[in-house]
Amino acid sequence: MQNYKDNLDKDGFTVVRNVFSRNEVEQLKGKLETLIDSITNKNIPDKVNISKRNNKIFSLHKIDQSTICDFNYIKEVKNLKEIIINILGENFIQSTIEAFVKFPEDNTNVPEHQDGFYFSIIGGRGINIWIALTDSDKNKGGIYYYQNSHRLKLLTHQNITPGTWEVSDKEKEKYLSLEKVYPDVSAGDIIIHDFYTIHGSDDNKSIQDRMAMTYSFFSSDAVVDSKMRNMVIKNNLKSLFDLKK
Question: Tens digits of per-residue pLDDT, 192-205?
């Protein structure tokens, strides 16, 4: 168990194999597909925020607040809970749950960013747990990381479109020389990355879906930059407004 924390501290990310069984993965996929169908086809109101690309749902945010399906039980899965406690301590805090769907041959890349910017964390520690609901690799638009980039701490970001940010051009020279790693993962594996680790993903060039969910957690001593957080929230609200027009 300690190896996962050591690897996370050293590289900024780590892969943990077979955390979820095939049945647990299918249960999560089923819930996610039900949620997407309820929102898009049945027009059932929910508190979940969605983002679309190419007229298809690309990401779902705040699904921990869904009234249609419950996803919050995941943090109590024994294997996962032990990993979280090992990294953040007993009094960890769950933040939000998100999901990302890349359809076959879909140009849905994600720009390079740090989650610490979106969550505005400047103290304590934050981690994202990326759960593979399908096999994922470079060809399928799998997530990639700049190894050791978490050591740079929080960099400035620039807004691309409402709700979407990337590391500022003036900061990119600080990390582009670092090794870019595409972890190959199977359904049921997880990737844990630090909130300061720079990452992104490319287009899905395969003929298969690529589905994943992320659970965000903070240490009990995490500090939020309220000014930065308000800026991000206002921009996200504009994104939701534009989506509804």
Answer: 999 999 999 999 99
